[in-house]
Amino acid sequence: MAILILFACIVTLVLLIAWAKVNTFLAFLLVSAMAALLLRMPLRLIPQAINKGLGDTLGSLVIVIVLGAMLGKLVAHSGAAQKIATVLKNTFGYKYVTWAMSLTGFIVGIPLFYNVGFVLLIPIIFSVAYNYKLPLVYVGLPMLASLSVMHGFVPPHPSPMALVVQFHADLAKTFIYGIIVAIPAIIIAGPLFAITLKNMRSSPTITLQGKQLPDEELPGIAISIISALLPVLIIGVTTLMAKFYGNHVEIKNISDFIGEPIIAMILTICIATYTLGISMGKKITAIMAIYVEAVKDIAMILLIIGSAGILKQIFVETGVSTQLAGLLQGLSLPPLFLAWLITAVLRLCLGSATIAGLTAAGIVYPLLAHSGVDASLMVLSVGAGSLFCSHVNDTSFWLFKEYLGLSMKQTFLSWSLMETLVSVIGLIGVMLLNTVIK
């Protein structure tokens, strides 16, 4: 009965948003309350679950998203994004723009979490799209596909890293296998799939592209790239320091502190305020006005992200995810495929790739002892399943939809389908690797 209620809630949410045109934030709140009542959650616990779902989701994201939006707005208004877009255009040309975007997402996605990478790179997507006069989806999807794949497959991202620990997998081998599986997934779900979306038009309400400036007013390419990608550099350098100087406790502690996305973004904003603002003759009041405008742009996005976390929390606390996974565990299927399937179904129901992956890990772990499957491949199988078919209960779905100004149908046909391709291609890659290394 609980499983039926879960699916009924998901269907209701889709209908409220897509058919009844209810505000997305309100729709999530209504469906979350409905789910809690139908699943017989004690009334006194419902407000606690709502607060926890909203707080836990935004608590880990709101600072990064807000600071990322500020940086993005500054990168756009200072002309740095225009400069980077111009260099990309001159280097790769019109014909290979989607491959250039994929390569950027691949490199940046190694050390950077998806949400951080998204808000950091979205201004570049806007600038490249406007410079080439191409649809935002066609330009942006390859880069975001790369970010998503790296986030789901490759340590040190949260879910793969946690799975490595739970499955007692070899970290270096998991990283290498992850890169091997990630490359074809990125190519197929990125530049190749983007070709089918070249005629998809959007109407973005968020304007991250600043006005076009004369070349002489643009910052230098070095300052532009360093300022825009400074969080990547900070996190990457501190990660390497923690690895090579791990025996020195103070160095490791400092590296871990500075390498936290929140701290890296705070440092970046401080530095970029000078390099892309004050040093270019902008008054501090003008820079702060840019930051205020950036926060206004993402206010509703933050509410939608938080409300999606509420629904996820209701499903987790009522135990629906455990019941669903238990039903699937009894199926007679190859261990790697079963792990992928369980995680994919949990992803469909819960939205969060990390929660789906970690929930599935506890169920499929016993399979390792009896099947002899390589633990690193099990990490990747679960990681691939956790990316399956992102839809309305996933915060990334709404980030993509709202920033790029797409309809629900367009988002399903672009973002959701891309994530499904990534997940299925990832599974195929894992199964092929399993055949090769046996």
From TrEMBL:
GO cellular component, one term: plasma membrane
One Pfam family linked to the record: GntP_permease
Topology of the protein relative to the lipid bilayer: Multi-pass membrane protein
Compartment list: Cell membrane
An annotated Gene Ontology molecular function: gluconate transmembrane transporter activity
Keywords of this entry: Cell membrane, Membrane, Transmembrane, Transmembrane helix, Transport
The keyword Acetylation appears for this protein: no
Transmembrane segments: 30-46, 58-76, 96-129, 136-154, 174-197, 218-245, 257-277, 298-316, 336-365, 377-400, 412-433
Matches recorded under NCBIfam families: gntP
Family: Belongs to the GntP permease family.
The name this protein goes by in its record: High-affinity gluconate transporter
